[in-house]
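Entry 14. Structure prediction run on the chain below.
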Amino acid sequence: MTLPFSVHDDAELELNEAADFYDLENPGLGSTLIDEFERAVATIREHPEAGPGILGKVRRWGMLRFPYSLSVSSARA
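Output returned:
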């Protein structure tokens, strides 16, 4: 079962700013960040209980190549 999700406006802004920064440092790296984010979201939607619990029903999923993580709140978590 795939769960619906939404991205907080501030998180989306931060993600886009980070992608722009990485592209300035190394062209194409921003796209890699967005791709990794999208893979993380897809994994979380398929397996919402996979990340470690950090607070109540909130779980964290770390990105492998970048110093970011996604915090996810789910009724199933």
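The chain has one domain: 9-73.
Filed with the rest of this week's runs.
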